[in-house]
């Protein structure tokens, strides 16, 4: 309730007059004091949305250099809490801080969706940096300068770096059957030893990994730089971060170390963020600094104010990328199933559509519509009511059993 004080105090000259009927009217300047509603009072719980664009599947939006960030920025302005992953939020030298957005690695996001892990928001993490021993000296120095710049110019808490005892030897390829990029590292134990060293010695609770990637085949690189095809780096990047998160249960993200590309005069804007400098590390450090911690689901995680899978209200996915572990876990959650929104404009090399998987989903043409559906859902409005003839006549069901006797629905009043 707004309270307005419109009172006008009597002027002192009026009190001194001997007659109350003086023609001289003193000026009265009204003072207005309005006390508005206390908007901090909450009558609904926070609305939480998850945005997923799988890695290395050639997504039309989100398959390149941070080109899904505009969607995430817009969505974060509508919801109370947005949960997404590095493939959506990373843009090499570019990033965009969103205070209500949680940066969750893909393996952890799957475990969260399955109800096995909870997300604990933090103020900041202690970030450790792992550098592949296979990185050349000059390129290693470039990445260390990025870390120092992040500490000095952004105030990020990057506490220590370590070089692996053996080159990781990253290998990458495109799956000939599915068409998505994938790969492996030949020496995963070297990576795990480096991470364990940082965790035990420096008490880091988030890890940035920089692996030396082979300079890609020029034809595949040219396609990607023109906004076509699959990001050949992305699949094995996910393999690397999954390995660390699975072993240590802490946030992790990866940045590839590559030789600087030659100048391309006809570069696609979707790929341009990866052409700006010598490293992709800035966005990784910015994302990890306040990435939520991962806790196994138990009574302690409930007491620590964690976000649970049951808190998720909606999940937004590309139309044909609904078959991942996390997406299926959300879609098949019978108790607290979120609204699944499939975006038709965002296509990938996959064929995991809601129809093919038997998933109930709201299909929308593009992310404009998707965000409109989320806004309606958050407001408690049936999204179909926003469409012409979207609401049909209410249907009834018969309670008459097969034996011909009606079932009484009357309640006994005690």
TrEMBL record:
Entries under InterPro entries matching the protein: DUF3326
Judging by the UniProt lineage, the source's domain of life is Eukaryota
One Pfam family named in its UniProt record: DUF3326
Question: What protein name does the entry list?
Answer: Uncharacterized protein
């Amino acid at each position: 309730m707004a309270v307005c004080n419109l009172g006008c105090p009597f002027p002192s000259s009026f009190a001194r007059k001997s007659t109350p009927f003086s023609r001289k009217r003193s000026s009265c300047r009204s003072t207005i004091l309005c006390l508005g509603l206390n908007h901090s009072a909450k009558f609904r719980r926070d609305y939480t949305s998850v945005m997923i664009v799988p890695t290395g599947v050639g997504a039309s939006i989100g398959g390149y250099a941070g080109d899904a960030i505009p969607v995430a920025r817009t969505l974060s302005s509508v919801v109370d809490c947005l949960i997404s992953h590095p493939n959506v939020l990373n843009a090499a030298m570019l990033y965009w801080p969103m205070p209500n957005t949680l940066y969750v690695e893909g393996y952890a996001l799957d475990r969260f969706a399955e109800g096995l892990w909870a997300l604990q928001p933090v103020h900041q993490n202690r970030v450790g940096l792992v550098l592949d021993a296979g990185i050349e000296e000059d390129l290693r120095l470039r990445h260390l300068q990025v870390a120092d710049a992040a500490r000095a110019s952004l105030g990020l808490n990057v506490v220590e770096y370590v070089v692996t005892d053996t080159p990781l030897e990253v290998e990458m390829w495109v799956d000939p059957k599915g068409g998505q990029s994938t790969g492996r590292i030949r020496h995963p134990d070297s990576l795990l030893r480096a991470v364990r060293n940082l965790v035990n010695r420096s008490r880091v609770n988030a890890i940035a990994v920089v692996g030396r990637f082979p300079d890609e085949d020029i034809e595949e690189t040219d396609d990607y730089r023109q906004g076509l095809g699959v990001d050949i780096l992305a699949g094995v990047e996910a393999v690397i971060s999954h390995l660390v998160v699975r072993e240590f249960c802490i946030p992790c993200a990866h940045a590839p170390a590559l030789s600087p590309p030659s100048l391309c005069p006809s570069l696609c804007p979707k790929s341009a963020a990866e052409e700006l400098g010598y490293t992709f590390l800035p966005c990784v450090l910015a994302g990890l600094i306040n990435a939520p911690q991962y806790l196994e689901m138990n009574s302690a995680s409930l007491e620590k104010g964690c976000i649970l899978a049951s808190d998720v209200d909606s999940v937004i996915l590309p139309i044909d990328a609904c078959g991942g572990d996390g997406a299926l876990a959300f879609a098949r959650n019978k108790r607290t199933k979120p609204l699944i929104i499939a975006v038709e404009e965002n296509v990938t090399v996959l064929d995991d559509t809601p129809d093919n998987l038997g998933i109930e989903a709201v299909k929308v043409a593009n992310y404009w519509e998707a965000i409109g559906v989320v806004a309606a859902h958050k407001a408690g409005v049936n999204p179909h009511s926003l469409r012409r003839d979207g609401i049909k006549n209410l249907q009834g069901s018969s309670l008459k059993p097969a034996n011909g006797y009606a079932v009484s629905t009357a309640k006994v009043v005690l």
